[in-house]
Design a protein that fits this description.
The protein is mainly alpha-helical and 142 residues long. The protein is 77% helix and 0% strand.
Amino acid sequence: MILFAALIYAAYTDLKRREIEIWLFPSVIMAYLLLFLHNDEPLPVHIIGGLLMGLTSLFAAMLNKLGGGDVLLYGAVGFVLGLTEAGVLFSVIVLAQFSFAVIFVQVAKVEIPKEKEVPMAPLILVSYLTYHGFVLLLRFLS
C-alpha cells in the first residue's frame, strides 16, 4: 500500500511538473524495511530486485532516456517487490512502453521530439496496477 501511494504521487508530479521527488522512493525503501521485512522472503531477494530494475534504468538514464527520479523509482519498486515480482513487472513495463510507441508513434503518427521527456511514473503505475490485477484474477480463478 505504501508503494501504491508513492506511485500515485510520483505519477501526479511527473505528469504535472515532469519530475519525481528524489526523497520519495528512498523513503519508501526505508518504510518497507521497517514495516514489512519480516515476510518470508530474505533481504537479498529484495536487494537483487532493486538492483535489477535500478541498474537497468540507470543504463537507460546514461543514454539520456530517463531522469534520476525514474531511476530511483525503478530501483525502489524492484526492491519492494523482490526479484521475481520485479522481473515480471519489468516485463509488463517494457510491453507497455512498446505498446505506447507503436500506438502513438506508428499508428497515430504522433511525433515526440527527442528533447521532450515522456513521463514514466504514470506508465509504471498503470503497469503495477495491471500486474496486480492479473495476480488477483489468477488467485480468484484458482
